[in-house]
Design a protein that fits this description.
41% of the residues lie in helices and 28% in strands. It has 5 helices and 8 strands; from the N terminus they run αβββαββαβββαα. The protein has a 5-stranded antiparallel sheet with strand order 3-2-1-4-5. β1 (30-37) and β2 form a beta hairpin. Bound molecules: 2-acetamido-2-deoxy-beta-D-glucopyranose. 2-acetamido-2-deoxy-beta-D-glucopyranose binds next to β2. 2-acetamido-2-deoxy-beta-D-glucopyranose binds at residues 48-49, 63, 65.
Length: 224
C-alpha cells in the first residue's frame, strides 16, 4: 500500500524531470530590434538590432547605428538635464522598456550591456540595459565624438531552473525507508515516559503545587 503510492509519486517526479530536460534541449534564434529615445518628445529612433543565433548558448550578433552629431548632442542634453535615457527593445512583436541615467551612459562613453532574460521555454521576459563601467554621473562634459559608437555586450540570461528533483537518490531513499520499516527498524522502543518526560514533568509539578494549595485552603476552611 505504502509502496504503491510512493511508486506513483516517483513516476510523477520522473515526468517532471523529463519535461525540464526537453525544454532545455529546445534551441532557437531570436531577433531583437533596438530603439532609443534621445529627446523628451517620446519619439523613438532606431538604435540597431540583435540577432541571437542560439538561445541556448547565448550566441549573439549586434548591429548598432552610429550616432550623428545631432543625436550625440541630444544625448548630451539628456545627460546635462539629469534625464533618463530609455531603450525600447522589440522581440516577437512585444516592446520591452528599460532606462538608465543618461549621464551614466554618456560618462561611460556609450559602453553598456544589454541583458536579455528568457524564461524556461526560451521566451523573452525582459530586456534590460546596464551601464558596465565605473560611471557615476560626476558631471563631466563628454566630448561629442565619444558619443558616437555604442560598444555593447549582450548577455542572454536563462530563467533559474530551481532545484531539479534528483530522482535516483529519491527512489533509493524511499526504498531504504521501506526496508527499514519492514525490518522494524527505526521504531521508537523507548518507554512512554522516556519519550515524553519533558511534557509529563511540568504537568506533575503543576498538579503537585495545585493540590498542595488546595490542602492549605481546605485546612483553612476546616478551621473556620
Ligand atoms: C540590423 O541592423 C543593421 C545595421 O543597422 C541593418 O543593416 C540591418 O538591416 C538590420 N536588420 C534588420 C532585420 O532590421
Amino acid at each position: 500500500m505504502i509502496f504503491g503510492s510512493s511508486s506513483i509519486f516517483i513516476i510523477f517526479i520522473a515526468a517532471i524531470q523529463t519535461a525540464y530536460t526537453s525544454s532545455l534541449e529546445h534551441d532557437g534564434s531570436l531577433f531583437v530590434k533596438l530603439e532609443h529615445y534621445l529627446d523628451e518628445n517620446n519619439e523613438p529612433v532606431e538604435r540597431g538590432n540583435i540577432s541571437v543565433q542560439s538561445i541556448r548558448i547565448g550566441q549573439t550578433q549586434v548591429y548598432q547605428n552610429i550616432l550623428n552629431p545631432q543625436q550625440s548632442q541630444m544625448l548630451r542634453n539628456l545627460a546635462s538635464s539629469n534625464s533618463f535615457y530609455q531603450i525600447r527593445a522589440i522581440a516577437n512583436g512585444k516592446p520591452y522598456i528599460s532606462s538608465v541615467k543618461a549621464c551614466m551612459l554618456a560618462e561611460a562613453e556609450l559602453d553598456d550591456r544589454l541583458s536579455i532574460s528568457l524564461d524556461y521555454a526560451g521566451r523573452v521576459v525582459a530586456v534590460s540595459q546596464i551601464i558596465a563601467s565605473k560611471s557615476s554621473c560626476e558631471g563631466a562634459t563628454v566630448p561629442l565624438d565619444k558619443l558616437k559608437y555604442f560598444t555593447t555586450n549582450v548577455y542572454v540570461r536563462h530563467a533559474e531552473m530551481g532545484p531539479i528533483p534528483d530522482t535516483a537518490s529519491y527512489i533509493q531513499r524511499i526504498e531504504r525507508e521501506r526496508e527499514a520499516k519492514e525490518r522494524g527498524e527505526g521504531k521508537d522502543n523507548r518507554s512512554l515516559f522516556a519519550k515524553y518526560w519533558m511534557y509529563i514533568i511540568p504537568v506533575v509539578v503543576v498538579l503537585v503545587i495545585s493540590s498542595a494549595t488546595n490542602v492549605e485552603n481546605g485546612g483553612a476552611g476546616a478551621a473556620n
